[in-house]
Amino acid sequence: MLSRIAHESILLGSELVCESDFVERDKNYDVRETVSSEWKKLDLEWIKINSNGTICRKSILAGCGSLLRNDQGIWIKVYMYNIGLSSHLYVELRGIIMVSIGPGTLDIEKLPWSIVTSPISRFSNADLLAKQGLPLFRGLHLLVEPLPDLIQFSDKDTRTSSIAGLVCGFWHLGSEIEFVNMSVSERKTIDLEQGWDFMQKGITKLKNILEGLPEPQFSSEDYMMLYTTIYNMCTQKPPHDYSQQLYDKYRESFEEYIVTTVLPSLREKHDEFMLRELVKRWANHKIMVRWLSRFFHYLDRYFIARRSLPPLNEVGLSCFRDLVYKELSGKVRDAVISLIDQEREGEQIDRALLKNVLDIFVEIGMGQMDYYENDFEADMLNDTSAYYSRKASNWILEDSCPDYMLKAEECLRREKDRVANYLHASSEPRLLEKVQHELLTVYASQLLEKEHSGCHALLRDDKIEDLSRMFRLFSKIPRGLDPVSSIFKQHVTTEGMALVKLAEDAASTKKPEKKDIVGVQEQVFVRKVIELHDKYLAYVNDCFQNHTLFHKAHKEAFEVFCNKGVAGSSSAELLATFCDNILKKGGSEKLSDEAIEDTLEKVVKLLAYISDKDMFAEFYRKKLARRLLFDKSANDEHERSILTKLKQQCGGQFTSKMEGMVTDLTLAKENQTSFEEYLSNNSNADPGIDLTVTVLTTGFWPSYKSFDLNLPAEMVKCVEVFKEFYQTKTKHRKLTWIYSLGTCNISGKFDAKPVELVVTTYQAAALLLFNSSDRLSYSEILTQLNLTDDDVIRLLHSLSCAKYKILNKEPSTKTISSTDHFEFNSKFTDKMRRIKIPLPPVDEKKKVVDDVDKDRRYAIDASIVRIMKSRKVLGYQQLVMECVEQLGRMFKPDVKAIKKRIEDLISRDYLERDKDNANLFSAMSHEKVSSDAFGISRLRAIVFLVVPQGTIIFILWYLNLLVDNIQLYLKDSILICFYW
């Protein structure tokens, strides 16, 4: 049988040869596969033969392989790659003792071991074997490179046209391959001195080759003899097993070569020349390690593995590290850093040389980065800091902020380029951090606050490109964007406050009577705020890459000046007025539909910065009501669009009443149509006047004063007719007539010509009094109309002192007094046949503010009760904080107001103050314990409330907050409450 020695020799020898001479297979090939089942063993078991290979570009016959196997597994397998002038065989041996092939016979015996070789280069073209008449032995020897004394071939007829036909030739030519068993005892013993002398010759030859001396290359026979010598010396029986001695001499070979040859050549050179010599010596040393480790390979496989010693490759590299690296690493580091500084100054250097030198620092660590980081990188980083510190100290004095940032950005780019070309990739974050620290962190405040070119100046001058560069640079340093965003916030706030002041100054310089001019200034102010918002939002999106820090700064800046009033008007009122001017007919803002939509979108965005959103809602609702009731809305689609936007921004509760108003008006128009049909079907009911009544739900609309105006007989009949009609539709609703919102068309019969007067209901009622009286005093008019003094003064002033003097007043002054008398002015004339006499509007600002304050008290009460119901016991500070947080979406509650509401709730027994801690409150239960002989254990109350629908909605919400056990039923406008 084939001995284990032969097994190991074939395996190691073939692996070593292939490792040194393997040429990677070309990709330009075709694969051919055929399967045959023509061959049988004597026991009739099938044996499959697969032919796989490539078609050579020069010989179509070359490039096949063969595979033999049976049901026990693969036994012999040969792949041959023919690629031009280079061919390779892949041989796999599986326990073959003998292959004997004759006509129709096949004998194969399997052993319990196997050999798998790597691809093996061949030294001559396959076709040359046939041309030179080489025997099969020679062909196999060139391919497999086994130990010659371990394999014996009996050659019958071994000539073949190609190496690819070797195995196939076994079948057809009847060749015989025999592996002969050779025991260890049959070999001649080699002593240490004799064996080492032979090895020394091979090592000296290798050194000469490395030094460039004339020396022939190693042949395959040379190589195998060196390997065999080491193998034999390590496998001899003790005391002739020289494994340990050979391991030591392996190290000594490197040390001797380094001390006598390598170090002297390095010591005599300096700077860049030393670096070049080092790179050359390191490359030679790695070659020497590779070859010697192959010669001594048997040590690695058995002796070193069993003793847990450092492997041969590591021993070879450590010799260089201990003898060369440790002596020269400091000089090498300084030389490399010097070259890097030269390149930073603009000089040309050999980057490939630096790459090779720095690779030595990495490779010498054998998988660890300690040598690179400790012996080179640390000093390189310190030098980098010092270099850029010097540069920055000069640049900060000489350059403007944009120029400085250009240089800083270029420096960072070049450092990244150095990492890409010769520094190790792991150095990049630490290197850039050093550069950023010296150029940006150290001088951040000086750079950003430069008087004529800093961040303020860049924002002022709209230097978008420089601002983008500033963001890119300062975003890379820790908290570097904080000062930039702070300056951005200051700048935006300053610009916004300048707009506020400009609007204030414009309003104060105008005459008080020219209110239309002041209104225009307020409109201009809102428009400029929108433009400012668009401008700096674009900065946030483009220059500052949507960074949250700048979104926050932008928001906080607008919150500062957007909550400032202008000319006595709050920002909430200004926004509501601006929207009204866009949406009403005849507004000053003449825009296309697309522009209106875009502007409304921006107004809603501005609303997000206003703290008193409830104030805006009330002002907007007032103005929306006037647009809807007096048919002043330019486009219903725009009205619905802004309500949708407000709903998305502030929630459904914010717009519920406004949406109800729009819907309510649609229902009112349907109701008017029904009324007109009713009149056409009941001619007796027709009052003889064209009557239009708008029926609205009180809860949706703003509250209006309702007075018992003494209507003229003509109007009384109209009211009665509509009441009769409405009774036919429902009997459970109460109609409240708001005469102050009504209008009336009156035909005035003047001497010159009749003129149609368009007036309010109040004005019409006053004018109709003069049908029965030629002259009336102020007090008589007041008594007959049953109105307040303020309303009578307003309507009489509009009829006697304004542009259209329908009434003559005595005395003829510009003001109304209680002693005045009035007469019908029959001499009145106008070029128009139809004129509208406006009634001076009542300043409703105070009423809106009072209504909002009232609603806020309810909201604060509800919030406090809701919090205490869930928390039971809570301290004052925490209660205030939670209340502010809950209400913050709609308005910013005043802490004093919250405190006042807490005291009120305590007085009403909803809260209780702790006896020991005045700042601690608890929710009170409404169950009372009485000492009377008789007590009420349960109370059920039934309350009928006739209230408007909107008020019902509020009561439902409010009562549910205050009372735990309550049942509410609603039918039409009647609210029925059960609680216990």
UniProtKB/TrEMBL annotation:
GO MF annotation list: ubiquitin protein ligase binding
Highest taxon, organism lineage: Eukaryota
Domain Cullin family profile: 570-800
Key words, A-Z: Isopeptide bond, Membrane, Transmembrane, Transmembrane helix, Ubl conjugation, Ubl conjugation pathway
Classification via SUPFAM superfamilies: Cullin homology domain (SSF75632), Cullin repeat-like (SSF74788), Winged helix' DNA-binding domain (SSF46785)
Keyword field contains Ubl conjugation: yes
Membrane-spanning parts: 941-963
GO terms classed as biological process: jasmonic acid mediated signaling pathway; ubiquitin-dependent protein catabolic process
Family listed: Belongs to the cullin family.
Protein name in UniProt: Cullin-1
Organism: Senna tora
